[in-house]
Write the structure tokens for this entry.
Amino acid sequence: MKLNRLLAIILATAFLGATTCVFADEGQPPAKNNWNKNHPRRHQVNKRLNNQNKRIHQEVKEGEISKGQAANLHKEDRQVRQEERGMATQNGGHITKQEQKTLNQQENGISNQIGK
């Protein structure tokens, strides 16, 4: 009796583990061969985010903005970067021209806050 119960528990655990693995793949980015983080539009957006990051650090160093202001700007930049990644996930690893335009408009708003 104990052997049958142990066997049932082992099989149930194996089954649950297998189904968990199947469901864990949902919502994940496409496989690396489909994930193109160096796509020209993504590269432009991310290069711009990196440049803004450097500008924020420079402005703090020069005393133009406070560390609190810098933290808020970094938070906004992270949100844009996360949005860019989400867009790319939905488009096979790249972003559309319209998505790039939208992201650049958001970056313009952040850029205008740097050094004020």
Q: What stands out?
A: Helices lie at 2-24, 40-61, 67-90, 97-113.
